[in-house]
Design goal:
Structural class: alpha+beta
Helix content: 25-40%
Number of domains: 1
CATH topology: CBS-domain
Strand content: 5-15%
CATH superfamily: CBS-domain
Number of helices: 8
Largest sheet: 4 strands, mixed
Oligomer: single chain
Length: 207
């Protein structure tokens, strides 16, 4: 199956252009949060405060950012569960930095992507890394038409938080692209994913 056919071309489109995920959109109504609508924390934020975010906002992870807004880690509900299982109920007043020091050594790390990455590349990451979410960051790669100053500024912003993409975001997008017709419900999207992933692997091999 060709990956550039009508049913699969969207898999090679940039994530942000497809509207997959939630992206930072500063709002005058929320001047206290430069990453609105995303919730974030720093290494100095307490675990208790993050748990409050989980409960109040109905989320399961928050990016940990530094003073420049660059992503340095991710704190998830599973990290809180680990503390509870250890009987460390009183440790909810620990800072995130202290809590992360107690994190299991088998933590896979924060998986990131950029807004310019394709949906096919996200499928590949989900399959290979068995992840439930990706943090979208500034890639730092200069874009066509940018001046040297703009390119330099973009490079300095490399790693800054731009958004979050969950597995449910991806699934919702795919379901929305299912063409219900003579070909059978779901048949084309599944084959499209496999074809695009195969093409991605082929393109990654040096010629």
């Amino acid at each position: 199956m060709a990956v550039n056919c009508r049913e699969t071309v969207y898999l090679n489109e940039p994530l942000r252009a497809l509207g997959v995920g939630t992206y930072v959109t500063p709002s005058a109504d929320h001047p206290e949060n430069p990453f609105y609508p995303l919730a974030t924390a720093t290494m100095q934020t307490t675990v208790f405060d993050v748990v409050h975010m989980f409960s109040e906002l109905g989320i399961s992870a928050v990016p940990i950012v530094d003073a420049q807004g660059k992503v340095v880690n991710l704190y998830e509900t599973v990290d809180v569960i680990t503390l509870v299982r250890m009987g460390a109920y009183h440790d909810l007043d620990l800072t995130i930095a202290q809590a992360l020091a107690r994190r299991s050594a088998d933590f896979a790390g924060v998986v990131t992507c950029t807004p310019d990455d394709s949906l096919a590349s996200v499928f590949h990451l989900i399959r290979m890394r068995r992840i439930h979410r990706l943090v979208v960051v500034e890639g730092g790669k200069p874009k066509a038409g940018e001046s040297q100053e703009e390119a330099a500024e973009r490079t300095q912003r490399k790693g800054q938080l731009l958004g979050m993409i969950s597995l449910s975001d991806v699934l919702k997008h795919i379901i929305g692209n299912v063409n219900i017709g003579g070909g059978g419900v779901g048949a084309v999207p599944v084959e499209a994913v496999l074809a695009a992933e195969a093409q991605a692997r082929k393109d990654s091999v040096p010629s």
